[in-house]
Amino acid sequence: MEGLLSVIEELYQGKITASNTRVKVYKKSFKEHEQARLIMVKTNGIRYILVVGKGSLFDDLQGENIGKGKACPLSHENRLVLNRYFDYTVPRAFGTKIATMGLGDRLGLASPGHIEAIKGRLVKPILAQQSIRELTLTNRTMNDMLDAAAFAVFQEGYEGGYGADGDHIKQESDIQMALELGISMLTLDCSDYIPTGIGAKSLEEVRSEFEKYPKDVQDYYNERYLHQTFDVNGVAISFDEETLIKYVLEYDEALKYMVHVYNEYISKLDRDFDFEISIDETETITSPMAHFFVANELTSKGVKVISLAPRFCGEFQKGIDYIGDVEQFERELSEHALIAEYFGYKLSIHSGSDKFRVFPIIAKHTKGIVHVKTAGTNWLEAVRVIAKTNPYLYRRLHTFALRNLEEALKYYHITPDLDSIAPLDSVTDENLADYMNNDAARQVLHVTYGIILTAKDDNGEPLFKEEFYKTLDEYEDEYIESLVHHIGNHVDTLGL
Ligand SMILES: [Zn+2]
């Protein structure tokens, strides 16, 4: 708490103190509300909101009395207070008229950099975005994620609006929980309902499976699609028996689940909401035709989606560029984009970090109406900062990640060429950050984040987590700078 007294004294007099060696003052956070004044500060690595004055906001914020004010910790309760008084700290939906970018923040530290990176651009940030898998792997809760985003917005004085995505949620209990906690976007993951291997089956095989469906279901699909051609913004889509049956077998169960979730939860909300359907986390590539089939069924059943994430051809592996045939990607993407436009939602691009080869194609065909989801690339930028500023920590992380890669591969699909990673003892401290320019090293560190952050020593103490956070805290400006640069490159290449 050292040094806070004088900051509080000046705040009381209406002055904003400059940062000094003991206290960092986040000037952009300064706010006045009726008779209260607030500002965020950091001392000894811990952030507080200082509040002076009087009134209900002053009373509602909980903290330690210091001089004429209070130093309030960044607690969940205090976040809820900010939400009540300052609308811009509440996550909101964005609909289909503007691009959005998913900027999941595993550490709870990246949002200030993300805000800086997208300020003034033609894109809104979804600052809070974690899947249940990511939360579990990092021992965080959905509230931790929402708290971190709201405090970052307050710290930066960013009033442009941000979203919070319950990312890749599968279970109804998780949907319910996330909605109650105030998410503004849900990415419904339907992969458990999409069987694989249908595409490889013969017509006889799929026909006999289709014949097991109730007669009225068979009739329904046949009447709507069989030997029909649809003109979708100039793309002709026609269904013969085999393609139709295969789509029914692939998506009928998933469609039922989407409709159920929409009717049971989304349509009942009394607020604007961004509902996204994801059919990307499966081996089944979504052809433009399959995309049309799913979208057409959703529309006819009254399900309003804001975005839909197909599984594109080629590979969208975490943290590295697109792998695959770029020409084929463009052909299919252009049709996916026309289909999305036809049904009036945004195309959603998942695992969208670092896909620089295809960003210009995405920009060209989605014309600024797109959702691009990135998640781990800000973690890699954090690792880059560690490599530059704390080489000893970086070396231990690197060794640990390689040694425990097997474990991480249970959760993530990557195919790194491990031989291309230079042996650690051959690299000088000055060059450690170069590992973050090597695809294989990027991927190894990308997928081992959970193992690194939760690793314990023999006494049950965190092996890396505290030092990792401490280093990033010390070099917070460097971290912001590297995110502004890296995420800025994404936004530039996407033409947003
Ligand atoms: Zn996805």
Automatic annotation (TrEMBL):
Q: Which reaction does it catalyse?
A: keto-D-tagaturonate = keto-D-fructuronate
The record's InterPro entries line, in alphabetical order, gives: UxaE (IPR032586)
Cofactor(s) in the UniProt record: a divalent metal cation
A Pfam family that the UniProt record links to this protein: UxaE
Q: Which residues bind a divalent metal cation?
A: H168, K318, H350
Q: Where is the active site?
A: D167, E276
Top class in the EC scheme: isomerase
Which keywords has UniProt assigned to this entry?
A: Isomerase, Metal-binding
EC number in record = 5.1.2.7
Q: Does the keyword Phosphoprotein apply?
A: no
Q: Name one GO molecular function term.
A: metal ion binding
According to its UniProt entry, the function of this protein is described as: Catalyzes the epimerization of D-tagaturonate (D-TagA) to D-fructuronate (D-FruA).
Q: Which family does it belong to?
A: Belongs to the UxaE family.
The protein's name in its UniProt record: Tagaturonate/fructuronate epimerase
Source organism of this protein record: Lederbergia citrisecunda
Q: Which taxonomic lineage does the organism of this UniProt entry have?
A: Bacteria, Bacillati, Bacillota, Bacilli, Bacillales
